[in-house]
Amino acid sequence: MKIEKHPTVLAYREKNQSGPASPAAVLQASELKQLARDAGADDVGFIEIGRPVLDQERHEILKAYPRTKALMSIVVRMNREPIRSPSRSVANLEFHHCGDEVNEIAHRIVRQLEDRGIGAMNPSMGFPMEMADFPGKVWVVSHKPVAVAAGLGMMGIHRNVIHPRFGNFILLGTILLDAEISAYDDPISYNPCLECKLCVAACPVGAISADGQFDFSACYTHNYREFMGGFTDWVEQVVDSRNAVEYRQRVTDAESSSLWQSLSFGPNYKAAYCLSVCPAGEDVIGPYLADKKEHLREIVRPLQDKHETIYVLKNSDAQQHVTRRFPHKKVKIVGNGLRPATIEGFLKGAPHVFQPKQSAELNATFHFTFTGDEISKGQPQRATFQIHDQALTVTEGHQGNADLSINAEASTWIGFLRKERHIVWALLTRKIRLRGPLKLLVAFGKCFPQ
């Protein structure tokens, strides 16, 4: 049968005798915002695909949906009291329920746009995401910078978006649109973050510093213990255990049950206390202003005083913080699965796992030269790590004078970082060569515990 005679084609021709309706070339912003609110969004904003804030995101966005011309950011409020509860099952129920709601609202918006002949795509609010790229970028679009650019809030020192009205008790979604919009939004003119430092006081692993620095590794290792890398670490505990008795020595019955709960119900956050204690936002701030001591007594201290297991990397800043600040909390040494698979992953990921306090006695410049089949175009890849005053800077090429030069075969260096190659073997076989004192490599390693 020729395609023109196919029943589907005939039905389409009959239905669209005057030709398919053309969608509006430009969508009206006011109508689109009303559509989003009718679908259940509590707030909404728009940015164009060419916005500079998307320079690091644009390639991946267009890879996922090449026709993207604009982005819609939506906000959905969470109920505050469940998030504040020391019983994390209550908080996680709210996270999961609201997360499902974000996805459902985005789905409804896309369906209505599609019915109008407008192409649109709604990437996942959260998990699951593009895990084939783990531990690299595992999401289609970063919701937070899109929301900030679309005027829906600003990032607080706890690295969460704070909405001017709803505070940080929100979840975000993003919709990619195959259409221009009549008006786009700009960032708000102030930061709702009060810099009250309550998130600093409540964080059990010290991931948030009073000076605004953020320890991604500490937050990731504990709060996401049953997600992604924490889950792979648990699997390795299972594999490495000789029998059930040794497994129970490594993983308690409560931890095994918690992992089962995450697998059957949904991954559970271990803390997110920074969200719980934040008083910012017009709808949130009233009780805090009325009685700050009561806010501390009722919301902050129950989280601080809670007896719980805190997951940390061995010899990390987080381990030192918990031991000193929360001696009543149990510290457990674990892995977090943040093992780079490529040299690019190592260079990009290093700032996120760097431990400032572990570098307190180190001020040095390291030149790296990577070679091997894994290197793009076969040309040596060079980078400089500068560790000074408990801060790390990573740049391309060799900058300044090196205190230690490291020439390494790429696969061997990655194997060393993943604990699949021993440094002594690598040095003896000259897969890794040093020019400078070996003790500097040891000091370098202490800044990046795994």
UniProtKB/TrEMBL annotation:
SUPFAM superfamilies: alpha-helical ferredoxin, SCP-like. One of its GO terms (molecular function) is iron-sulfur cluster binding. It holds the Pfam family Fer4. Residues 184-213 form the 4Fe-4S ferredoxin-type domain. Residues 1-16 have a biased composition (Basic and acidic residues). Residues 1-21 are annotated as: Disordered. Keywords: Iron, Iron-sulfur, Metal-binding. This is 4Fe-4S ferredoxin iron-sulfur binding domain protein. It comes from Planctopirus limnophila (strain ATCC 43296 / DSM 3776 / IFAM 1008 / Mu 290).
